[in-house]
Every structure is written in C-alpha cells, then in structure tokens.
Amino acid sequence: QVQLVESGGGSVQAGGSLRLSCIVSGSTDSSRFMAWFRHAPGLEREGVAGIDSDEITLYSSSVKGRFTISRDNAKNILYLQMNSLKPEDTAMYYCAAGDSSLDPRNDISLYITDVAFWGQGTQVTVSS
Fold first, then answer.
1. In a 3-state reduction of DSSP, which class is residue 27?
2. In a structure prediction context, what are the per-residue pLDDT tens digits for the chain, which is 128 residues long?
3. Opening angle at CA 114, ends 28 and 45, nearest 5
4. Which residues pair with 51 in a beta bridge?
5. Contact between residue 12 and residue 21 where contact means Cβ atoms under 8 Å apart
6. DSSP secondary structure, 90-109, as one string
7. How far is 126 from 45, CA to CA, in rounded Å?
8. CA pair distance 1, 41, nearest whole angstrom
C-alpha cells in the first residue's frame, strides 16, 4: 500500500504561482511512476504531469512550459510547481502512483489506467 497526501492548493489570481506537494509513504517500491492529475467540474479527469523512476517526465500540452514536476526521493515528496496560472487550471489536483514506466511519446492522461494509488486531492482555484 502507498499513502499519498497532497497539500499546497489554494486560490490565486491569473498569472500567479502555486506549488503542490505530495507526501508519499508506505510501500514506495511499487511506485515506478508518480503523477499529478486534475478534475474540473463537468470534465473528465486528465493527466497534468508525470515522472518515473528514470526521471522521465511527461506534461500535458496545456501546462507544458508553465508547470514543472519534480520529486525529492530522500524525503519521499512529489512536487508540482505551477507558474503563469490560468482560470482554466482551476480543478481538484490529485497525486497518483503506479507501477509502469513512462514513454515520452505518450500523453500523460493515458496512464490514468495504470494508477494504483490516489491521494485525496487539493483544490486549486484561479480567478481572472
């Protein structure tokens, strides 16, 4: 079992920044990849960014260049630095873990079916 606890969400104005954190505990050996997904009302849950044990990173086209995913393996913390936030980034953001490697040719949303563990989510609200 892997436990994921997110923090760092909040309300910001467009153009602002937030950094999400996800504390990872439990059997982390089975977490070959870590990722952030988001879910906005009326929309499907979508992938935002992912990173695997080989440090391969994937980003959705909507956040590439604005968001950065990283991990501190010593502290077992996953981060998502979000800059230049837009109102359309408003959503519940979820930390996720799964046991597969990431292919940089794929869309991160494809890996939603490989997620084995989910956090409880943290809300991000961006106002215009």
1. coil
2. 899 999 999 999 999 999 999 999 987 665 689 999 999 999 999 999 999 999 999 999 999 999 999 999 899 999 999 999 999 999 999 999 998 899 989 999 999 999 999 999 999 999 99
3. 110
4. 34, 57
5. no
6. -EEEEEEEESSPPPTTS-GG
7. 18
8. 29
